[in-house]
Amino acid sequence: MLTNFLQLFGRNPDNEYEQAFVKEIIVREKPARDPRVERIIVIGWVLIAFKSAFIWWACANYTVPFHPLWIIAPTVMFGLLCTAIYYGRR
Q: What are the UniProt keywords, alphabetically (predicted)?
């Protein structure tokens, strides 16, 4: 029914069908995870945790004119960005 309807407008559906037919499908596999890189990411997060604890302790025990989150937040955000880029890649 649709092919007859398209012929009213001067289109030849047979030629379009051959052009629109799927001839090949290429499936890309996700890249394999590298255990070395994942170990580096875990080590990085452990270092971020130690740094955050130390900064919070230092700001609580010494007089500083800023809140510790001014140092901790950008570090955590950058760590999240790096981790998301690694795990979100195709």
A: Membrane, Transmembrane, Transmembrane helix
